[in-house]
TrEMBL record:
The keyword DNA-binding applies. GO terms for cellular component: cytosol. It comes from Mycoplasmopsis anatis 1340. InterPro entries: Hist_DNA-bd (IPR000119), IHF-like_DNA-bd_dom_sf (IPR010992). One of its GO terms (biological process) is chromosome condensation. It holds the Pfam family Bac_DNA_binding. SUPFAM superfamilies: IHF-like DNA-binding proteins. Keywords: DNA condensation, DNA-binding. It comes from the Bacteria. GO terms for molecular function: DNA binding; structural constituent of chromatin. This is Bacterial nucleoid DNA-binding protein.
Length: 93
């Protein structure tokens, strides 16, 4: 499902113009990104929890190199999502 299809379904279900839903959705995504950048935890009761976590740096071989050279992958912060129990049970039919 694309963003456009998602927004259209919400607009239809809530009887709200697509432009308004699009504006709301963009604001939702903006706030979610801002909170994750600030390393805050975002918990949405029926949906799940978004957090960030540091992925440890490591040394590995480059699979695309003919010599299988050893490269160092630096640590980085990644987004983690854990679906709510309600959503997990709903999807696991």
């Amino acid at each position: 499902m694309t963003k456009k299809e998602f927004i259209s379904k919400i607009a239809e279900r809530c009887d709200v113009p697509v432009k308004e839903v699009d504006k709301f959705f963009d604001a939702f995504v903006f706030v979610l990104k801002e909170e994750l950048i600030a390393e805050e935890r975002v918990q949405l009761s029926d949906l799940g929890t978004f957090t960030t976590q540091i992925k440890r740096g490591r040394t590995t071989t480059n699979p695309f190199s003919p010599t299988k050279e050893v490269i160092t992958v630096p640590e980085k912060r990644v987004v983690k999502y854990k679906p709510s129990k309600y959503l997990r049970e709903l999807v696991d039919f």
